[in-house]
Amino acid sequence: MTQLSRRQFGLAAAFALMATGAFAQTWDQIVASAQGQTVYWHAWGGDPKINDFIAHVGVQAQARYGVTLEHVKLASTSDAVARVLAERDAGQTTGGAVDLIWINGENFAAMKAQGLLHGPFATDLPNWPLVDAAGKPAVVTDFTLPTEGYESPWAMAQLVFEYDTARLPAPPADLAALKVFILSNPGRFTYPQPPDYLGMTFLKQVLHGVMADPALLQNPVNPDSYEADTAPLWAFLDEIHPSLWRSGQAFPANEPALGQLLADAEIDIAFAFNPGRASAEILAGTLPDTVRTFVLAGGTIGNASFVAIPFNAANREGALVIANLLLDPEIQARAQDPAILGFQTVLDVSALEAKDKARFDALTLGPATLSPAELGPTLLEPHASWVARIGEDWVRRYGTAP
Amino acid sequence: MTGLHLTDLTIRHGDATLVSLTAKVAPGEVLTVMGASGSGKSTLLAALIGTLPRSFGMTGGIALNGVDVTRLPTRARRMGILFQDDVLFPHLSVGGNLGFGLPARAPDRAKRIDAALAEVGLAGFADRDPATLSGGQRARVSLLRTLLAAPQALLLDEPFSRLDATLREQVRSFVLDRARAQGLPMVLVTHDAEDARAAGGPVVTPLGVPVSV
Amino acid sequence: MRQGPFLLRLVPGLTLGLLSAPVIAGMAGTLSPAFGLDPLSRDGPGFAALISLGDWPGLWPAARLSVVTGVVSTLLAVLISLGVVATMIGRPGFATVQRILSPLLSVPHAAAALGLAFLIAPSGWIARALSPWATGWTQPPDLLILNDPAGLALVFGLVAKEMPFLLLMILAALPQTDAARRMTVSASLGYGRLAGFTLTVLPALYQQIRLPIYAVLAYAMTSVEMAMILGPTLPPSLSVQIVLWATEPNLTHRGTAAAAALLQILLVAATLGAWRLAELAVTRLLRRVASAGRRGAWLDGAFQPVVLILGLVPALALFAGLAGLGVWSVAGLWSFPDILPQNLTLATWMRAAPTLWQISATTLALALVSTGVALALVLACLEAEHRFGLNPSATVLWLLYLPLIMPQVAFLPGLQMLALSAGVQGGFAPVAAVHLVFVLPYVFLSLASPFRAWDGRIAVQGAALGASPDRVFWHLRLPMLLAPVLTAAAVGLAVSVGQYLPTLLIGGGRVETLTTEAVSLASGGNRRVIGTHALLQMALPAMGFALAVGLPRLVFANRRGVGLA
Fold this sequence. Notes:
The complex is a heterotrimer.
Chain A: H1 2-20, H2 27-34, E1 38-44, H3 48-65, E2 68-74, H4 77-89, E3 100-103, H5 106-113, E4 141-142, E5 145-146, E6 152-158, E7 160-164, H6 175-184, H7 197-210, H8 226-240, H9 255-263, E8 269-272, H10 277-283, E9 291-294, E10 300-308, H11 316-325, H12 329-336, H13 354-361, H14 372-375, E11 378-379, H15 384-398
Parallel strand pairs in A: 1-2, 1-3, 10-11
Antiparallel strand pairs in A: 3-10, 4-5, 6-10, 7-8, 7-9
Helix pairs in contact in A: 2-11, 7-8, 12-13
Chain B: E1 4-13, E2 16-25, E3 30-34, H1 41-49, E4 57-64, E5 67-68, H2 74-77, E6 79-82, H3 94-101, H4 109-119, H5 135-148, E7 153-157, H6 165-181, E8 186-190, H7 193-199, E9 203-204
Parallel strand pairs in B: 3-8, 3-9, 6-7, 7-8
Antiparallel strand pairs in B: 1-2, 1-4, 4-5
Helix pairs in contact in B: 3-5, 5-6
Chain C: H1 4-31, H2 48-55, H3 59-88, H4 94-105, H5 109-120, H6 125-130, H7 152-173, H8 179-188, H9 193-222, H10 225-230, H11 238-246, H12 254-292, H13 297-329, H14 347-387, H15 394-405, H16 412-421, H17 428-453, H18 456-464, H19 469-480, H20 482-498, H21 501-507, H22 514-522, H23 527-555
């Protein structure tokens, strides 16, 4: 028993040293230690395109650094969070099963608050200077929570709406027009059931559009004015729910389920948190090539996807190498290719070396993707407290009785 | 036309002919079918009761009291059967087993059951668990259950072979006497010459060859 | 080998401990957050979690939904299975039914649910087949068929999935009920098939299938995958809500999830209790009816066709749904109302191919190891029971079936925590061990009856010829029981292949099987990929069942006396 606690103490001391930088390894040392490691990257496994992309990253990691990448395919990111938590509770402060997690938003906030993350590390990565932190504030602010280097971005996402021109020639231009469309086309629109991530994003988008002062969303919820602040949101939902798909008596579970409804022609307008999704699906032959995307006037919610390293990761050096590799211009350009993923890059393309810039310039947009200009402004994610309150209220209002 | 009539009853399985019989069993008479195991005795019984698998080819006819029952389902043939074991239902009491045999429309059910039990020396047994009965008692209850359903013929599938020698004779004469008294034509399948002698009727093999006992 | 029998005597106790200890310990670990007893609790020990559960407005509808769908689907599955057996018993085609049903047993619940969902959705295969020529639909109608508030789609899915299991359990138990002669006796007394079966065979049969039925009832009440895909969502069933809470990112609802898991256990226990009472009432009623002598021949005409249709429709739906998934796995663009895809492509298969070999090998290895150990333990238990005249008490049986009756979400998270505390790293061996916990009861379920029913006179005969008990076991009993042993093995393989939560939680995500892969892909709702994995998931156990049916036929090709089901 004493021996164990002494070992734990030693480890804790070592972590403290590393955290303060007194024990910091140089990048070369990290790369050297990483060689031969096997990194277990816990990432949602629900999309074969993403799975293929991660497999490609693994090939590159092996070729360039001798790091083996294993994609642990999750049904839900919180499975990985729960695993790290269980390890922590069980006193496993080293040799943990999770080396790297695809994460953002609430999962990140929870892990950071619980002290389950290693870091800060992101700004020390050699490729960090390429990241467009000034032009894309979402890469350092995750749901208004400063990332403080505890997670490293690898893809940008923005809410875009998808429709089939064969069935709907002219999509609505703004939120008000969307409401008119819903009311005059009963059963042809829906959104994933909150607290699903995309469903919550839709609520946030609506709130942004109907709220008197959307700037409030960047602050924590004010309990005194919350009712009044959100009243227009509930009024909007009360009005559209009877005209939703299945009259609002059932909701799709998540983004893929919503996309399937569009593909099955059960609805006319869907949406995704990826401007390139529709193009990628068209190129994969799973959506008709008449599908196009649009955004609402005034902008849509956008954020970034990150990777983070648990405090007890067994292969931390390998994980750092992967996090850095994900920022590599070649990898980033691959992610943005609509035939591969269609994710928007986190890098500042204009500041890249000519050779790397050319990689991005060579990309076509894909049949359904909007140009950066057409995508319009990105609205920042509201403070996480709004998500929590709205999610609970949605369940209370609509979630327990159809 | 009364009695059980088998007309050119022939049963084949593959190339083998298992049964080939023509017989008229008058009410109260016993046709005894004897043979070694596997000789087609149980095939004959299955054909008579109506449970012959389709893979067996059957030709000829079975008529009971003038009704052609060859194609009728078991429940419509009105033939009772007694197996080697009594097949009393363990989840029912003795009275329950008899009630199962007695038609639903029979009046005074409880009285009739008690009377039937008393007649065979089992008065007051209605509430007993069949598991507590002796072999001879079980055999009597089993026969009673069959007879209460008022069958028009009785098939006996080696019903005495599990009983010991003294009991065997007792039960055998009990069964045969009561069935004769009700005027039922009987087919007795056995490999025991003593059974055949006691039955007193013609004795044949499943292929219709007379056997002398 | 003097200590041989001594060791054998220890096996039953050992097996029970092996099964129940992880369940009970895991349950304690999982439920402790309900009372704030875990290290993460924000409020410390107390009833905060129970109160938060009580505050959830969906509690009553969710609990009612779990109970109602569970009881109704189990009742239907039991009645239809019994009806089918009563109708088919002793008739040609009975063996065919069994052969057709066996592979359905190995269909994972998620795949079955997705297949059914595609079949019956307003944009599904049936609607496509009828559109637009019969229905006039050029786009799918806005009909609430899936996820209906009453849970009818969920009940349909559960019935379709559980019926094959119950039928196989009934078929395994029938030989010990003297069914053939009882049916003949009741028919000769003038009873119809359904009445005769119900009044004379069922009482004996039910004793044998009671525990499998309880397992089905408990599963139906706590199923997660099926309820997620087919069940209502406003609110979802209690079990789904538990998973949603337990996997919520901000970790604030772990206590609520634990409290709900506790409620779930109590609900299952109460429902099982009520079911037992209903059993007693029905038993009394059946005795009364039997003594009354009503022949009930009219029931056959009225109900046999209904029963056959009710039995056929879910089975056909299951097959059609799976076929639909198969088509999706090679589908290019497939729009409504096309009945078949516009173009076919092997892209989905090619994409999956590189990882499939490795994953299939892991899946198969896990299944073989857990099933092999389970078979050895079950055979040893049964042999010990036979040699030492042990008579498993009701308590023992309940312990044996604990892993089947206990909701998985109620003990697996706690078990994971325990494993981590004990320093067990996720890996092949721990995952195989936890698979064993679920495989063993099913192997026992399918093997115990045929093993006990084996004609003991052959053993006496063997012993009289001077064979030792070991020799009797290895040279007589085991070879003669080859068919049931292989069937049990195939069931075990199927159960192991289907495990999701245990593999994920205990394996720490590092042990990848077809099922973990399939469920994570299912979360993306991509029918094409789900199709490939569902087919493979079925293929592995189906090979097992094919062996179970085929091998004894080969070995005993010239031995008609060795019963081949």
